[in-house]
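Lecture 7 notes: from sequence to structure.
We start with the chain below.
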Amino acid sequence: MAGLAESGSNPDVDLLYDINGLAKDAPGWFDRVMEFVGEYGLLLAIVLLVVWCWWTVRRRGDEDAASSVAALVWAPLAAGIAVLVNVPIRGFVERPRPFLDHQGLEVLVSGKTDYSFVSDHATIVMAMAVGLFVAHRKFGLVALVLAVFGGFIRVYMGVHYPTDVVGGFALGTAVALLLSPVAMALLTPVARAVERSARVGWIVRARGRGAGDGEGAVIPGARREQASERDLAA
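Predicted structure tokens for the same chain:
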């Protein structure tokens, strides 16, 4: 992989220069914004999407709330596992950062001394986005768009090759999807147990939203039947 990076005619390198060239033409303040967004902003945005989705799921209180919450828990866990899987991959490939092998790049973040392939940022955001998509399609689609944009910014910042980002997307997606059945089989019973708890059940379902709650539950036709019984008794 490192050998591929040494050739200036390589499409990966050409695309790197094309995307990173946008940073040279952009105002300084815009590059600072892109730097923050690429390092922290998009990851924070996806985390907030997960929290927002959890709040929506628990307030709605559907019958599948426990499985939805379990899928939301899996999203950050998938990201963590994907990063761990990436550790031996990066050590095996040993691809230097692009600015170490190529001159003239506009590097927006200094101090990057670790290997370039696979991108940890791309792996994390895509794993969380795919995990969120498993839990909720609409929120997941937004997260997927943010993840793709985040990968673009990593190349824009001059700290990754495009193939580093694509590799991160592939790794994050593979971990989130392939391990999802096992994760859901383990996490869903835990979420259901939490849902039944009087103390922490609010984590899965908002109070008064339980489908089987006798108090506060609205049963269709209940009031009509009770009124009919009173009429008959009279």
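Points to note: Residues 82 and 172 are 6 Å apart (CA to CA). Residues 28-60 form the longest helix (33 residues).
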